[in-house]
Amino acid sequence: MIMQNNTFSKLSVPIKSKGRFYTEKKSKLRSPYQRDRDRIIHSSAFRRLKHKTQVFVNTTDDHYRTRITHSLEVAQIARTLAKHFKLNEDLSETLSLAHDLGHTPFGHAGEEALNYCMKNNGGFDHNIQTIRIVTLLENKYYNFKGLNLTFETLDGLVKHNGPIYNLDKLDNILGKNFFEKKLNFHQSPSLEAQIASISDDIAYNSHDLEDGLRAKLFKLKDLKNLPVLKSILAKHEKKLEKFSQDLVFRQIIRDIINTMVKDIIINTSKNIKTYKIENINDVYESRFPIVQFSKKMNLFHISIKRFLKEKMYLHKKVVDKTSHGKKVINSLFLKIKKNPKKYISINNDKKFDIDRSICDFIAGMTDRFAINLHNKSK
Questions:
Q1: Which residues, at least 6 apart from 219, have a Cβ–Cβ distance to it below 8 Å?
Q2: Tens digit of pLDDT at every position of the chain (378 positions)
Q3: Which pTM value belongs to this model?
Q4: Could you count the other beta carbons within 10 Å of the beta carbon of residue 334?
Q5: In 10 A of CB 160, how many CB atoms?
Q6: What's the Cα-to-Cα distance from 221 to each of 34, 48, 305, rounded to whole Å?
Q7: I want to staple 101 with a disulfide (CB 3.0 to 4.6 A). Which of 45, 173, 206, 347 is the partner?
């Protein structure tokens, strides 16, 4: 039998789950959250992340990060933080691995294009698309659609960006009362979910910097004015005389991640004391995020995002590729809508119209598949 982990903190989501939408026989070998993690890893949607854009369109270079490498890096950081606070590591890992399942091809540019295509039919949101995938679209079991994940995992995925007070988007994309009152949208997410979310920030900030440096969109000297980074760069500057630039880049990125993780540990510990968080219910009832950067590190986080937007995400090399991706998605949507039966199995679920089925199909594509289908259908 699976033993209760007595080393779990009182702030942790208990190892005994509240359950799933469809009752299943419990495993003697794995906890509910290990099963959730394994279902994510074995899903088709997770495998497709290896050919989905993080920043650079996947056909650009084999060494740039894709959604799957990003998700694995998020999970590694999240497990480190969860272990430090004696939380449910398996749940944090599951949320980290699943958080980007709903991303379109061509990154955020693809999301914008698909949202435009669906403007009259509820729109598109990659976080909500993740929920569609794990509850409706993955089809691997005889008795239910989706992966039948625990309510704790679903709660963490829904609240990736915090509590939800306006349910309009969820209702439009999933259908009204989809969760049958099993989730409390106004409560704060678990610490495990908060850790997965902030680990996402750490991973994409630090690793996008590395990919941008590798792509020569900016230079090390361009980073010197960013707070926190100045001291890290000074520590490694002389190493360039002895070691390759790539190796020095990697050491700098390691130091950035390490510095941010340490800051979260110190500041989160302080928040737990300040907000008098003593058990899991206190976590859910907290009116403030508990897992946070310090003010100094948050300024660093904001400055990196601003820097990356200016120097990388809006760089002509990146924009040219992603702009083409937008055109591919718009063209595919219109092409498939003219003759949907040629491309997809029509969903007989009356809650959703044909546009949503087309949206699901396109959102699930890899960059390469979308480009190839577009070229064939010209």
A1: 213
A2: 444 455 899 999 999 999 999 999 999 999 999 999 999 999 999 999 998 877 655 545 555 778 899 999 999 999 999 999 999 999 999 999 999 999 999 988 999 999 999 999 999 999 999 999 999 999 999 999 999 999 999 999 999 999 999 999 999 999 999 998 999 999 999 999 999 999 999 998 898 898 888 888 898 889 988 888 888 998 998 898 899 888 998 999 999 999 999 999 999 999 999 999 999 999 999 999 999 999 999 999 999 999 999 998 888 888 888 899 999 999 999 999 999 999 998 765 555 689 999 999 999 999 999 999 999 977
A3: 0.93
A4: 11
A5: 19
A6: 44, 36, 17
A7: 45
Q: Please, how many CA atoms are within 13 Å of residue 270, restricted to the half-sphere of its CB?
A: 10
The number of beta carbons lying within 10 Å of the beta carbon of residue 120 is 7
Task: Dump the DSSP string for 146-172.
Answer: B----HHHHHHHHTTTS-----HHHHH
CA atoms within 13 A on the CB side of 171: 9
Nearest Cα neighbor of 56 from 254, 324, 317 is: 317
Residues 6+ apart with CB under 8 A from 157: 95, 98, 99, 127, 130, 131, 134, 193
Interatomic CA distance for residues 103 and 263, integer angstroms: 29
CA atoms within 13 A on the CB side of 285: 8
* One-letter amino acid of 76: Q
- CA torsion sign for 314, 377, 49, 192 is positive
Residue 263 contacts by C-beta under 8 Å, 6 or more apart in sequence?
Answer: 293, 294, 296, 297
Q: Enter the DSSP assignment of 66.
A: B
214/345 Cα distance (integer angstroms): 42
Token look-up 């958080």 returns 99
Task: Say how far apart CA 207 and CA 203 lie, in whole Å.
Answer: 6
Q: What is the distance between the alpha carbons of residues 321 and 318, in angstroms, rounded to a whole number? A: 5
Q: Can you tell me the distance from the alpha carbon of 88 to that of 194, in angstroms, rounded to the nearest whole number?
A: 12
